Amino acid sequence: MADSSFDIVSKVDHQEADNALNQARKEVEQRYDFKGTDSSIEWSGESILIKSNSEERAKAVLDVFQTKLIKRGISLKSLESGEPAASGREYRIVSTLKDGISQENAKKIGKLIRDEGPKAVKSQIQGDELRVQSKSRDDLQEVIRLLKAADLDVDLQFINYR
User: Fold this and answer.
1) Helix (H) or strand (E) holding 126
2) Which of 6, 61, 68, 154 lies at 20 to 30 Å from 41 by C-alpha?
3) pLDDT one-digit tens code per residue, 2-11
4) Phi then psi for 115, rounded to 5 degrees?
5) Mind listing the domains of the chain with CATH numbers?
6) 10 Å Cβ neighbour count for 68?
7) Of 83, 79, 84, 117, which Cα lies nearest the Cα of 99?
8) Which ranges does the record mark as transmembrane (predicted)?
9) What are the backbone angles phi and psi of residue 27, rounded to the nearest 5°?
């Protein structure tokens, strides 16, 4: 019998992220507590730029955006935000969406599977994803349970289960 396998990936649905950003922008424009603060949120290339006239307002805009991401099913583990930085008379926060599993995190996940997973399971890094193989589908499901329970700093999805 052939080996069963699945891939571990960390992908962000960019259409959903764009929808969350547009919803956050509309809310910031309409909310009373943001009136007169020159607060805004927008795409700046691949990153997200948040601007406001105070550090607290900039953090509040980021909070609104995080809420919208959660409602759209995007994990906050895939959002990387900096601290508010003063730029002239405004504060800016630059955030990025992490796509793919870094080599460092892939090695951590591989080590976790080797150390705590079933012995017959093999994992290998393929670019920005991990392939996990085993003869037993039960072992693969055990690995999925193990990774879901682990507190990793990446949002994982399990695809191509066959």
Assistant:
1) strand 122-126
2) 154
3) 688 999 999 9
4) -75, -45
5) 4-11+101-159 (3.30.70.860), 14-97 (3.30.70.990)
6) 22
7) 79
8) none
9) -65, -40
